[in-house]
Amino acid sequence: MNDVLCELMLNGFLIYAKNGKFFVKKESVPTNKKIIEEIEYDNYEDAINSAVEILKNPGKIFWSAIARYNRGLGIEYKNLPDFEAETFENANCLAEEIAKKILGGPRTIISEVKVHIKN
Question: ∠ CA(93), CA(95), CA(101), 5° rounding?
Answer without folding.
Answer: 105
